[in-house]
Design goal:
Length: 194
């Protein structure tokens, strides 16, 4: 019989936003030296052929960062921009030496492929790990985080709304988007570690 294990005690990382090109350039040095990085993309939708890239998140050490790229709402601050950020991050994104872990990285790889980039260094995928480890359970990141970390995560619906009132992730305030997106990268790295 299966033995239910109590969730591990794992501290959440500190969530930060990379708001401009200077911050991103300084961040690259830290990113290059990280051993394993939780990685995620945020998009305007779930259909990889139609979705537009809105931002990316990274987790390692004691912090997780969100890089907003294409948030569009009244009063939205200037952002690095998709093409500029991808040019800066291209060596890291395509590097097989820089190891990445995420939830359903096939989707993220497809989004980046739409921009002519190959996602290299995919070391682990928590969705696949869950299928192998516990095929009888739910495999979404919220369920994995609740089950293995004891974390109640921010749901996509809490950030974008539901039904006719739902907004695109591009319309979400960057501060709120940072909480959600950085948490995703944090969760993927923490779930994998457990």
């Amino acid at each position: 019989p299966a033995v239910e294990a109590a969730p591990a005690t794992v501290e959440r990382r500190k969530y930060l936003a990379l708001r401009d090109e200077k911050a991103l350039s300084e961040f690259i040095t830290q990113l290059d030296s990280a051993g394993l990085v939780g990685f995620d993309t945020e998009t305007t939708g779930l259909e990889p052929m139609l979705a537009r890239l809105v931002g990316m998140s990274f987790a390692f050490g004691n912090s997780a960062w969100y890089l907003p790229l294409a948030h569009e709402y009244p009063g939205a601050p200037e952002q690095v921009g998709v093409e500029k950020a991808l040019t800066i991050l291209k060596p890291w994104l395509q590097s097989d030496r820089h190891r990445k872990v995420g939830q359903n990285l096939k989707f993220d790889a497809h989004i980046l492929a739409n921009h002519g980039l190959r996602l290299g260094g995919v070391a682990h995928d928590t969705l696949l790990e869950s299928y192998v480890w516990e095929v009888h359970e739910r495999h979404d990141l919220d369920s994995l985080s609740q089950r293995h970390l004891g974390w109640k995560t921010i749901s996509y619906d809490e950030v974008t709304g539901k039904g006719a009132g739902r907004i695109s992730f591009a319309e979400v305030d960057i501060a709120r988007a940072t909480e959600y997106a950085a948490e995703d990268a944090d969760c993927a790295l923490a779930v994998h570690a457990v």
